[in-house]
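We emphasize that the prediction below concerns an isolated chain of 126 residues; any contacts that depend on oligomerization or on bound cofactors are therefore not represented. The input was used exactly as deposited, without trimming of termini.
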Amino acid sequence: MNIPENLKFTKDHEWIKVEGDEAYIGITDYAQNELGDIVFVEVETEGETLDKEEAFGTIEAVKTVSDMFMPVGGEILEFNAELEDNPEIINEDPYDKGWIIKIKFTNKDELDELLSANQYKELIES
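Result of the prediction step, given as a token string:
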């Protein structure tokens, strides 16, 4: 299971990669593996400002549809347009090309409440 050290994680299996006042958000390798083949990603919240733990979109796999939640509060700047035609990118590369949204923080202190790579590894192994 791939769990990059440079990311923060949620108990709901989202990851966040911080770049200054902005960040990329996606779902973890564990989550994409549990979901199976991803067939559709829907994010209708682009341009909106959402609070931490608010749903920003849904991800659909062959067997199920799941909500995706904000790890921290922020304005959704961009949806990864590559996912419109190729949602399976998330299965192939969840931490790089498979990012889902880009945000601008409303409260960077919320990052301190997220899980480190080691804490996330303990969560999924328990």
